[in-house]
Design goal:
The chain is an all-alpha fold. It has one domain. Helix 3 packs across helix 5, helix 4 runs parallel beside helix 7 and helix 5 runs antiparallel to helix 6. The longest helix has 56 residues.
């Protein structure tokens, strides 16, 4: 989602009170969906392209996990370890050691553990990533709706000002509404930049854990 450069107010805005005139420039900070960062989804607000789902093939070069399904959930030890590995508060070096300590036994046992462990990590972090992606989509829709409301309110300010006997109380109330709407818009825009980094961080963690599991298997 990119941002336009043309304010929504015409020259006659100069006759508005100073606060209203300042608020009329908010159009320069509102999104223009036609110039979105990802043309496949005009409302996507992140610089990063929108990739709805992770691919197992991109994260794992070990034995196929196609036959694992949800069987990893049948083992409480694997369930507990998956939860620990998936938690981003667990440092990667600690996660790698936990993986190495877990994948032991005969070659067949190690492969079974490795496949189930990666399947659990992939499923768990894929779910977390999907929830983050849905949250980003939801915030983007709310931002678009808020931007539309701000533009509408700014247009209403122009109309009120153009009337022969402008109602200053209405102008003041609407100016306050635009001001608060703009603050909320800016706050959301700043916070979403950080949220946009989370899907990539999850992908990197899955890849790193997959590599650690593969190394332990070898």
């Amino acid at each position: 989602m990119q941002y336009g450069v043309e304010p929504p107010c015409r020259e006659q805005t100069m006759k508005l009170p100073a606060l209203v005139f300042a608020l009329c420039s908010v159009g320069a900070a509102l999104p223009l969906p036609a110039h979105a960062a990802d043309p496949r989804d005009p409302d996507w607000p992140c610089v990063q392209p929108k990739v709805p789902q992770m691919s197992v093939a991109a994260m794992w070069d070990g034995p196929s996990i196609a036959d694992v399904g949800d069987s990893w959930k049948d083992d409480p030890n694997i369930q507990n370890l998956v939860a620990r590995l998936a938690a981003r508060r667990t440092p990667l070096d600690a996660a790698e050691k936990a993986v190495a300590d877990f994948i032991t036994g005969s070659a067949a046992e190690k492969e079974d553990k490795a496949k189930k462990l990666f399947a659990g990590v992939f499923d768990t972090l894929s779910q977390q990533r999907s929830e983050v992606m849905s949250g980003i989509d939801r915030v983007a829709r709310n931002e678009k709706e808020l931007a539309d409301r701000i533009r509408s309110d700014v247009a209403a300010l122009r109309e009120l000002q153009d009337k022969p006997e402008a109602d200053q109380s209405k102008i003041s109330a609407l100016a306050t509404q635009v001001e608060w709407g703009t603050r909320i818009f800016d706050d959301r825009r700043k916070s979403i930049r950080y949220v946009c980094e989370v899907p990539t961080a999850i992908e990197q963690r899955v890849f790193a854990l997959g590599h650690a599991i593969r190394q332990a298997l070898n």
